[in-house]
Amino acid sequence: MALATRVIPCLDVAAGRVVKGVRFQGLEDAGDPVELAARYAAAGADEITFLDVTATVEARGTLLDTVRRTAEQVFVPLTVGGGVRSVADVDALLRSGADKIGVNSAAIARPELIAEIADRFGAQVCVLSLDVQHDPLTPSGWVVTTHGGRTDTGIDALEWTERAIALGAGELLLNSIDADGTKAGYDLRLIEAVRAVSSVPVIASGGAGGVEHFAPAVEAGADAVLAASVFHRGVLTIGEVKAALADAGVTVRQEAGR
């Protein structure tokens, strides 16, 4: 029996509010994270992803109180990322109600963090957040960025993917910086390339603009599809996305909640 493809709304949070822009620029207010998370969970979201998009840039930790209040209202798995630098940060987030933790910038700076998280909490807790941009200077044609897409690391995306999985990353949150917020569809070539080197689930992110964009991402190799602005702005509902996936022959979970 095929595993159900997950549909995941993403809450990009800055200063305690959900924001959305294009390629991480021109951020606009999209609402209260607790209210939006509760609404999406009730509408059938399979998971919620909560990314504190300015925590690393501002050199601070994730807003634990917002995570705690969100977790109290949401009874589907909650992934939290942004500003995670240590096992202690992971422990605090899990105690605040998170189920999985996303790491990016800190793992680039010190890859051993991935192994430390996996060893202590299990690989299923550690989600490697990959903000990837096209770059012809790298062997694969894609480079990893950090700090919300602001910093080009010069690290080849596929090489880093393989290394992170070997260290213990249990899932990949693959975000195309080029496609982010454009509503032009997911970067299918990027998904295919990462799928080819990944032995763990891949979450596709960046570019969703219509119901027709989700099934191709799954066909390209995504185990889950993540979107933000189309949900925040009421362009699409989770139900409409799941219906389109089902019509395309993709297995989805229809009931709300766990």
UniProtKB/TrEMBL annotation:
Chain's role: IGPS catalyzes the conversion of PRFAR and glutamine to IGP, AICAR and glutamate. The HisF subunit catalyzes the cyclization activity that produces IGP and AICAR from PRFAR using the ammonia provided by the HisH subunit.
Pfam assignment, any one: His_biosynth
Protein known as: Imidazole glycerol phosphate synthase subunit HisF
UniProt-listed Enzyme Commission number(s): 4.3.2.10
Predominant subcellular localization, coarse grouping: cytoplasm
Oligomeric and partner information: Heterodimer of HisH and HisF.
Gene: hisF
Lineage of the species this protein comes from: Bacteria, Bacillati, Actinomycetota, Actinomycetes, Micrococcales
Active site: D12, D131
Keyword Cytoplasm annotated: yes
Compartment(s): Cytoplasm
Taxonomic superkingdom: Bacteria
GO molecular function: imidazoleglycerol-phosphate synthase activity; lyase activity
Record Gene3D superfamilies: Aldolase class I
GO cellular component assignments: cytoplasm
Keywords carried by this UniProt record: Amino-acid biosynthesis, Cytoplasm, Histidine biosynthesis, Lyase
Family indicated by similarity: Belongs to the HisA/HisF family.
Pathway as given in its UniProt record: Amino-acid biosynthesis; L-histidine biosynthesis; L-histidine from 5-phospho-alpha-D-ribose 1-diphosphate: step 5/9
UniProt enzyme class: lyase
Catalytic activity: 5-[(5-phospho-1-deoxy-D-ribulos-1-ylimino)methylamino]-1-(5-phospho-beta-D-ribosyl)imidazole-4-carboxamide + L-glutamine = D-erythro-1-(imidazol-4-yl)glycerol 3-phosphate + 5-amino-1-(5-phospho-beta-D-ribosyl)imidazole-4-carboxamide + L-glutamate + H(+)
BP term (GO), one: L-histidine biosynthetic process
